[in-house]
Amino acid sequence: MLDLVRLSRDAVFPPGGEELYRQIGRLTELAAEHEVIDAACGRGISSLFLAETFGCAGVGIDPDQVLVDQAEARARDSGVHGRFTFETAALDDLPFKDGTFDVAIGEIGLAAEADPARAVRELARVVKPHGCVVLVQLIWTGHVDPARREILVQHLGARPMILVEWKQLLRDAGVVDLTVEDWSDAPSPFRPSAGGPFPDFTQIFSARERFDILRRAFRRWGWSGVRGAVLREREIHRLLTRERVLGLSLIKGTKWPAPDAPGALT
Question: How large is the C-alpha radius of gyration of the chain?
Answer without folding.
Answer: 18
